[in-house]
Design brief:
The protein contains twelve helices and eight strands. By secondary structure, it is an alpha/beta fold. The protein has helices at 2-14, 17-26, 41-53, 70-90, 109-125, 140-151, 168-174, 198-214, 226-238, 256-264, 280-289, 292-302, and strands at residues 57-62, 94-98, 130-132, 157-162, 180-183, 219-222, 246-251, 269-275. This is proline dehydrogenase. InterPro entries: FAD-linked_oxidoreductase-like, PRODH_bac_arc, Proline_DH_dom, Proline_oxidase.
Length: 304
C-alpha cells in the first residue's frame, strides 16, 4: 500500500508544470545526475563515447514534453537536429529518441509532423534511426496515426508499445515489420485502458515480445527485469531467432552490470540516455516505477 501511495505521489509530481519549471532552475539535483547525462549535447556525447568504448550502443533523448508554444517546439526541433549532427560528427553509435508533444503535437498536428520530417530528413542524411517515444494513453492513437503517415516516406522511424495497455497486443500485430521498442509502461493510466496488476502487465509484455519476434520484425526489449531477459534469451534460442533481429535496452544509470554482461554474451545492448534541463518529469517517473529507485536517488543526493 505504501509503495502504491509513493508511486502515485511521484506520478502526480511528474505532471506538475510548476515543479518542472522550478526544477529547470535547480539543475540536476536529488540524484538525477545519476540517470540524466548532463544538460548539454556535449555532456551527452561524452557519455555515449564512454559507453560505445565498452561495446554498448545508445539512443539519445533530449528531455522535454507537453510544450505549450510554437517557439518552444521549434527550439526543441532545432535541438534534436543539432543532436543528430553531433552524433554524426563524433562518429557515435547512437540513435535518437523524440517525444512528439515536445515537437508541438498538442499545439497543431501538421506543425508537429513538419517538425518530425525535419528531424527524419537529418537522420536519413546521416543514415540514422529515430524512435518516437510513446507518451500517455491520450496520445497513443495519434502517435500511431502519425507514424503510419511518416512510414510512407521514411523507413528510419519506429515507435514504442506499452504492455500495460489493453490495446498493446493488437497494436503490435498491426505494426508487423516496423521496428518497435517494447516496454511495460511508466505513466499512470486508468483501469479502463490499462492493466493495474504487475503480473498481468508482465504476462502481456512477454506476449507482445513473442508476437513481434515471431513476425520477423526487429524488436527492442526494454527491460531491467532479469526474469524477462532470461525468458527472451530462451525463447529466441528455442525459435532460432537470429540475434541481429533484436536488442536489449536499458536506461542510463540502471543495472550497468547486466548491461555489460549482455554485451559479453554477444547480445546487442542499447542504453537509453536522457539529457537536458527538462529532467524533472522523466526523473519522477523513474522513481515511481520501482521503490528501489527512491533509495537510489537518496543515495545520489547524500553522496554529493
Amino acid at each position: 500500500m505504501l509503495a502504491e501511495v509513493s508511486k502515485n505521489v511521484f506520478l502526480f509530481a511528474s505532471q506538475s508544470k510548476g515543479l518542472n519549471k522550478a526544477a529547470k532552475k535547480w539543475g540536476l539535483r536529488f540524484g538525477a545526475s545519476q540517470v540524466v547525462a548532463g544538460d548539454t549535447i556535449e555532456s551527452a556525447v561524452k557519455k555515449v563515447q564512454e559507453l560505445n568504448k565498452k561495446g554498448l550502443v545508445c539512443t539519445l533523448d533530449h528531455l522535454g514534453e507537453f510544450v505549450s508554444s510554437r517557439e518552444e517546439a521549434t527550439e526543441a526541433t532545432e535541438y534534436n537536429v543539432k543532436t543528430l549532427e553531433a552524433i554524426a560528427k563524433a562518429g557515435l553509435n547512437s540513435n535518437l529518441s523524440v517525444k512528439m508533444t515536445q515537437l508541438g503535437l498538442d499545439i497543431d498536428r501538421d506543425f508537429c509532423v513538419r517538425n518530425m520530417c525535419r528531424i527524419l530528413d537529418t537522420a536519413k542524411k546521416h543514415n540514422n534511426f529515430v524512435r518516437i517515444d510513446m507518451e500517455d494513453h491520450a496520445h497513443c492513437q495519434i502517435t500511431l496515426d502519425i507514424l503510419s503517415e511518416l512510414r510512407q516516406t521514411y523507413d528510419n522511424v519506429g515507435t514504442v508499445i506499452q504492455a500495460y495497455l489493453f490495446r498493446a497486443h493488437q497494436d503490435v500485430k498491426e505494426l508487423k515489420g516496423i521496428p518497435l521498442r517494447l516496454v511495460k509502461g511508466a505513466y499512470k493510466e486508468s483501469s479502463e485502458v490499462a492493466y493495474q496488476e504487475k503480473e498481468k502487465v508482465d504476462e502481456n509484455y512477454i506476449r507482445i515480445i513473442e508476437e513481434h519476434l515471431l513476425s520477423g520484425s526487429y524488436t527492442a526489449i526494454a527491460s531491467h527485469d532479469h526474469h524477462i531477459i532470461k525468458k527472451v534469451k530462451e525463447f529466441t534460442q528455442k525459435n532460432n531467432i537470429p540475434r541481429d533481429q533484436f536488442e536489449f535496452q536499458m536506461l542510463y544509470g540502471f543495472r550497468t552490470d547486466i548491461q555489460l554482461s549482455l554485451v559479453q554474451e554477444g547480445y546487442k545492448m542499447r542504453v537509453y540516455i536522457p539529457f537536458g534541463n527538462d529532467w524533472f518529469g522523466y526523473f519522477m517517473r523513474r522513481l515511481a516505477e520501482r521503490p528501489q529507485n527512491v533509495a537510489f536517488a537518496l543515495k545520489g543526493l547524500f553522496s554529493k
